Task: inverse folding
């Protein structure tokens, strides 16, 4: 995929399919360690240990007879190609955390892409999802909490087209400000 935000959209889809009601996304750029970290944590049904081992290894998964998807192996390939890794931690009945690292300055790292549209789309399609986004770069942080945000817009839903625009513009502006003050464009 050409943008990390599209991987994030795909990985959050897994969380929703696993019945998650809460999803926390964290994007952290650390220029000293030349590292970009993307973490997606959910409270979905989780996976047993043998499944976790399979989803992180595309070579094992392709040989099994059960249907295995491409979302996690593709993210793993994108992470590895820029000098990073993918780790999946999961506990049945508790949730799952997917963490990907990328070489921040690596030429093969895709750009973060359009996180504002990703978050607005996720909320439009899943209006009651408790979605949290944290964006940290160069000592600056932008935080977006869906429940908190909706509380300020009394009576409307994330499924409303007006709210879609408001979310998109709010996240866009927040990320832009964090990036310009932090001096790191992702
Ligand atoms: N957050 C999660 N919670 C519980 N199970 C998960 C989670 N993420 C992935 N899985 C399990 O791992 C499998 C593989 O995920 P992956 O995203 O690689 O493929 P997929 O979702 O099955 O298909 P695709 O992403 O190609 O549509 C899923 O089918 C699901 O069983
Ligand atoms: Mg998937």
Result:
């Amino acid at each position: 995929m050409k943008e990390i935000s599209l991987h994030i959209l795909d990985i959050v889809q897994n969380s929703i399919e696993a019945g998650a009601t809460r999803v926390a996304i964290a994007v952290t750029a650390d220029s000293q360690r030349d590292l970009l970290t993307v973490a997606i944590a959910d409270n979905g049904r989780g996976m047993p240990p043998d499944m976790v081992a399979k989803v992180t290894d595309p070579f094992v998964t392709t040989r099994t007879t059960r249907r295995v998807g491409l979302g996690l192996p593709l993210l793993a390939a994108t992470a590895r190609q820029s000098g990073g890794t993918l780790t999946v931690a999961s506990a049945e009945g508790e949730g799952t955390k997917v963490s990907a690292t990328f070489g921040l300055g690596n030429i093969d790292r895709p750009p973060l892409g359009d996180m504002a549209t990703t978050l607005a789309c996720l909320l439009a399609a899943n209006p009651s999802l408790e979605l949290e986004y944290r964006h940290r770069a160069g000592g600056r942080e932008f935080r977006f909490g869906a429940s908190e945000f909706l509380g300020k817009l009394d009576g409307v839903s994330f499924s409303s087209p007006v709210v879609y625009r408001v979310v998109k513009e709010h996240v866009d502006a927040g990320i832009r400000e964090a990036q310009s003050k932090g001096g790191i464009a992702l």
